[in-house]
Amino acid sequence: MTTTYDPSHPNYFDEADFRHELTRVYELCHGCRVCVGLCPSFPSLFDAIDAKDGDTGALSKLEQDLVVDECFGCKMCYVKCPYVPPHEWELDFPRLMLRAKAIKVRHGEQSIRQRLTDQALARTDLVGGLSVALSTFVNKAVGARDSVARQAMQRTVGISQHRLLPPYAKVRFTTWFKNRLRPFIKDRKAKVSVFPTCFIEYMEPGIGKDLVGVYEHNHVECSLPEGAKCCGAPWLHQGNVEQFRAQASRNVDILIKEVKMGRDIVVSQPTCAYVIKKDYPQYLRTEDSKEVSAHTYDASEFLVKMHKNGGGIELDFNGDLVDEVTYHAACHLQAQNVGLKGRDLIKLTGAKVNVVSKCSGIDGTWGYRSENYAASKKLSGALASKIKKTKYEMLAGECLLANTAITEETEEKVFHPIEILARAYGLKKE
Question: Which residues contact 341 (CB under 8 A, 6 or more apart)?
């Protein structure tokens, strides 16, 4: 059996080999059970094995695949599991689930509806570009969850009509960046290239503007990786390895040029940062992808690194300050194993920060699918309950996907830590 999770391995797409590996991993998980509370996959797995008197090999294909279907790819196994590589047991549950989905795609086992949903969710640049150009019409059509347009979306491409969708901006972030008057950076401390995630590019350019403002306030020169597109996470999470590799390869070719010019890559969305740091080297296996990974930082992570390494960041907080913030520790941020740097940034402003660590149930595109909505709501509802038990003036979190789910549950805006820093500096005019 193949314990490797490298898609270039000759046995990666072999069904029989995969089933043997699935049985091995399921048996190890059943004997440990430390992950039982993370997601629906593990209770389903343990119940099925217990019903077979502990015989993991007796599970049917249907029972095995239910565990795969219920995995939403939060990556929290990397935080909780004691057997992840380089442990001798080489237990990498998240990548095994991705392998399962990749085999399903390779063997053409998806329904037409599933393929349509995959395409609708993965072609973020196409959909985003058109939606910004037609934002007045699009926002009106999809903003009301009981609208005819949302009902049609659910019936055709499988995106839940009940899920809150963020509105599209009128001007793309990269358009704003290219047209702005660029300031001279006095006493420059660093140079970065801002990777414009789909959310910032098409939906939340204000966060990108705040990021640039905060970085330049701290004497960091900002540029854009010309031509960079979506990180490719939607393709990867639905098992389309070929499309993901193509997307990753194009981005690496662009990002490595930035790195060679002495710039680090900063990313404000944890999922995208995780993909560039962890998945690009795993799936491309090139020196350029490894080099790009080594120079990629979460947006908050980079500033805290500056602060702790003696370069320092400005602490002249003369703007709007808050006394207490509740901060959501996003799953894909925790999986990067860099610490909660957004929390640390907010603390620098003098605010007390309450940390809530629980999955929002979105996880890339999983929570947007109509068939997953009910399960996703259970998770986001539990997260909202934990948030409501804390005291706060403002909600914060790095993951814009999770933030939308929190807003859906609480009807409150969730701010990126960079936005809070911009207000504390007095950079936010409105």
Answer: 298, 300, 301, 303, 304
List Cα–Cα distances, 42 to 33, 77, 288, 301, 420, in angstroms. 8, 11, 36, 31, 37
Distances (CA, A) of 174 to 137, 206, 226, 229, 230: 22, 11, 9, 11, 13
Separation between Cα atoms, residue 58 and residue 142, nearest integer Å? 46
CA atoms within 13 A of residue 413's CA, in its CB half-sphere: 6
Distance CA 148, CA 132 (A): 20
Q: Are 125 and 334 in contact (CB under 8 A)?
A: no
Full-model pTM: 0.94
Return d(Cα 386, Cα 227) in angstroms, integer: 40
> CB under 8 Å, gap of 24 or more: what pairs does 39-43 form?
39/70, 39/71, 39/72, 39/74, 39/76, 39/359, 39/379, 40/70, 40/375, 41/67, 41/68, 41/70, 41/71, 41/97, 42/67
Diameter of the chain by CA atoms? 70
* Structure token digits, residue 208: 């990108």
In angstroms, the CA 351 to CA 240 distance is 43
Nearest to 303 by CA among 392, 225, 212, 397: 212
Q: How many other β-carbons are positioned within 10 Å of the β-carbon of residue 250?
A: 14
Q: How confident is the model at residue 228 (pLDDT cuts 50, 70, 90)?
A: very high
Residues in the chain: 430
Task: Output the DSSP codes for 298-340.
Answer: EHHHHHHHHHHTTS-------S---SEEEEE--HHHHTTTS--
Rounded to the nearest 10°, the torsion over CA 281, 282, 284, 285 is: 80
The whole-angstrom distance between residue 145's C-alpha and the CA centroid of its chain comes to: 24
Which tens digits make up the pLDDT trace of 320-356?
999 999 999 999 999 999 999 999 999 999 999 999 9
Neighbours of 295 (CB within 10 A): 21
What are the Cα distances from residue 418, in Å, to 131, 214, 325, 346? 26, 7, 13, 9
Neighbours of 161 (CB within 10 A): 20
Name the band, by pLDDT with cuts 50, 70 and 90, for residue 164. Answer: very high
Q: Are 163 and 368 in contact (CB under 8 A)?
A: yes
Mean pLDDT calculated for residue range 14-41: 92
**CA-CA distances (angstroms) from residue 215 to 200, 202, 296, 312?**
16, 21, 15, 12
- The DSSP bridge partners found for residue 325 are 353, 394
Query: Distance (Å, rounded) from C-alpha 96 to C-alpha 21?
Result: 8
